[in-house]
């Protein structure tokens, strides 16, 4: 079984996220999403989520592409997660291009996928405020 992992905030889930998750799942048989906790988003990403971790987790768990959701609590857990969950493929959107190549040293395939243009959580928030 080929195991894939990806990380993110996934707030105000939108079709850009879905495009990423669908393509990530297509790279293997089992997709784990490491979902940023509220504390991590606030204290280390310096952002505010509209939906809580529990709400964001339930949305992801309802999706056919997602097999497991685990918490992302810090920037530095990826190496350990890949070992603990026997990950074969690590996937991120290409806005992160090159940031996680170090995972290749532990035999993990690192794949950066093109982002879906035009859509973003910040754009949704901005458009809804107008
Ligand atoms: N994404 C995308 N297209 C968009 C928006 C997002 O492909 N239009 C991808 C991002 O590249 C990322 C994933 O969807 O791979 C989740 O996006 P975010 O929730 O914005 O994730 P981010 O805040 O970048 O957190 O440790 C890694 C971080 O947790 C990533």
UniProtKB/TrEMBL annotation:
<feature type="domain" description="Cytidyltransferase-like">
    <location>
        <begin position="5"/>
        <end position="126"/>
    </location>
</feature>
<dbReference type="Pfam" id="PF01467">
    <property type="entry name" value="CTP_transf_like"/>
</dbReference>
<dbReference type="GO" id="GO:0047348">
    <property type="term" value="F:glycerol-3-phosphate cytidylyltransferase activity"/>
</dbReference>
<dbReference type="InterPro" id="IPR004821">
    <property type="entry name" value="Cyt_trans-like"/>
</dbReference>
<keyword id="KW-0548">Nucleotidyltransferase</keyword>
<dbReference type="InterPro" id="IPR014729">
    <property type="entry name" value="Rossmann-like_a/b/a_fold"/>
</dbReference>
<protein>
    <submittedName>
        <fullName>Glycerol-3-phosphate cytidylyltransferase</fullName>
        <ecNumber>2.7.7.39</ecNumber>
    </submittedName>
</protein>
<dbReference type="InterPro" id="IPR050385">
    <property type="entry name" value="Archaeal_FAD_synthase"/>
</dbReference>
<dbReference type="InterPro" id="IPR006409">
    <property type="entry name" value="G3P_cytidylTrfase"/>
</dbReference>
<keyword id="KW-0808">Transferase</keyword>
């Amino acid at each position: 079984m080929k195991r894939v992992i990806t990380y993110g905030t996934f707030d105000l889930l939108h079709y850009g996220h879905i495009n990423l998750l669908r393509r990530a799942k297509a790279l293997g048989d089992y997709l784990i999403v490491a979902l940023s906790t509220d504390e991590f988003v606030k204290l280390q990403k310096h952002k505010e989520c509209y939906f809580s971790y529990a709400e964001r987790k339930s949305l992801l768990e309802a999706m056919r592409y997602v097999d497991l959701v685990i918490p992302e609590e810090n920037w530095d857990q990826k190496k350990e997660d890949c070992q603990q969950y026997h990950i074969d493929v690590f996937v991120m959107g290409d806005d992160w291009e090159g940031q996680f190549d170090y995972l290749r040293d532990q035999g993990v395939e690192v794949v950066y996928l093109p982002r879906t243009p035009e859509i973003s959580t910040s754009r949704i928030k901005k458009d809804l405020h107008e």
